[in-house]
Design a protein that fits this description.
By secondary structure, this protein is α+β, with helices and mostly antiparallel strands. 39% of the residues lie in helices and 26% in strands. Strands 1, 2, 3, 5, 6, 8 and 9 form a seven-stranded mixed beta sheet that branches. It has a two-stranded antiparallel ribbon with strand order 4-7. Strand 5 and strand 6 form a beta hairpin.
Length: 194
């Protein structure tokens, strides 16, 4: 069985709309850090099942904090200007969507992920929260990792999540007053060995 057949990426679609456009700029540094306390308590000797339970709980906690921060940010400032001078909506009347919907996004992610080889050997799993902008033309840009669930989420997971999101095909752009606009978006990308 090939590595691609043995591993898949799971995106927490249930959280997709909850963390949509979760702004990383207003988060405190403690929210940006990984959940290392639980890893330290387990002394790095936790079983895969124990680490999965921790990652699931940490993902939900981070998503909740991100949603709260995003709601506060969107209320204070519905738009911002990026470094190139483009107006970006934190939330638009009509949200951007992956062409074909969530099931098509899952199929794309599952079919294109490259699970980091060393992470698979070490049975490492985790969730990486990726923020990006869906442009008014549907292109994905300004991709960045803003959170991760644990110390198991090493740089290889972060790099793969960014590569995967950046290489997405065009989306259906979000719109404001029936006009396509740039919208900040966020998805959790979960790496899980199956």
């Amino acid at each position: 069985m090939t590595m691609k057949n043995k591993t898949k990426i799971y995106t927490l679609i249930a959280l997709l709309f909850l963390v949509q456009a979760c702004g990383s700029k207003n988060e405190s540094s403690s929210e940006k850090t990984t959940a290392t306390g639980k890893d330290a308590q387990l002394g790095g000797l936790a079983t895969l099942e124990q680490r999965r339970a921790i990652h699931k709980k940490d993902s939900a906690m981070i998503a909740e904090k991100r949603m709260k921060a995003w709601n506060e940010m969107a209320d204070k400032s519905p738009t911002f200007t990026d470094r190139k001078g483009a107006i970006i909506y934190n939330k638009s009347e009509v949200s951007p969507t992956f062409v074909g919907g969530n099931s098509a996004m899952m199929k794309y992610l599952n079919g294109n992920v490259v699970y980091p080889e060393q992470a698979e050997k070490d049975e490492l799993e985790g969730t990486v929260f990726v923020d990006f902008v869906v442009g008014s033309d549907g292109t994905v840009r300004d991709v960045e990792v803003t959170n991760a669930t644990s110390t198991d989420v090493d740089q290889a997971f972060r790099n793969e999540a960014v590569r995967l999101v950046f290489s997405m095909p065009k989306w259906t752009p979000g719109s404001q007053n029936n006009v396509p606009v740039n919208v900040k978006y966020s998805i959790p990308v979960s790496f899980r060995i199956i």
